[in-house]
Design a protein that fits this description.
It is a single chain. The protein is α+β, with helices and mostly antiparallel strands. The chain contains two helices and three strands; from the N terminus they run E-E-E-H-H. Helix 1 packs across helix 2. The chain is globular and about 30 Å long.
């Protein structure tokens, strides 16, 4: 998976990360960030969550 999400320490905000780098303009609550990351990966939110739950390799 190219895009993932990460919580900003000390806040309630989440960002989308790409290969360890924060993608600009992707700050939001967890659901919003997950949705953006799924879209960037070209998959549905449901598929994205399944992959995340199962680990990096699916």
């Amino acid at each position: 998976m190219e895009f993932d999400v990460q919580k900003i320490r000390g806040t309630h905000n989440w960002v989308v990360i790409h290969n360890g780098n924060v993608v600009p303009f992707t700050v939001g609550d967890k659901h919003t960030a997950l949705k953006m990351a799924a879209t960037m990966n070209g998959i549905t939110l449901k598929e994205f969550l399944k992959i995340r739950k199962g680990g990096k390799n699916g």
